[in-house]
Design a protein that fits this description.
111 residues; mainly beta; 4-stranded antiparallel sheet; 3-stranded antiparallel sheet; 10 strands
Length: 111
Amino acid sequence: GLFASSFAGGLAKIDENGVTVILDENNPVVQKITSIKKTRDGLWMASYGTVNSLHLLKADNQLSSFSANNVAGRFPFKIETDLSGNIWMLLSEAGGGGVQIFNKEGSPVKL
């Protein structure tokens, strides 16, 4: 299936059975989704303007949230993964810009 998200509308899965809302706009954990990335570990999501700005939704619908280790990390606008499974969050200039890297367990990586 295909996942779709919006800054104010939550997260949905689209497949041959139609559209299934997974997280709606009233979900207090994940709001203002700016980027999603599907990996073997699950669906990673970045949310804007919050301390817990990285989230992992596993296949069993267990949702884990992770916090960045600096203020700029509260303002991600895109996430990508590398061959080691690390998650790279590109950060908005609104919070100072930069990159925040997490390992696949959700812990910040120091370069």
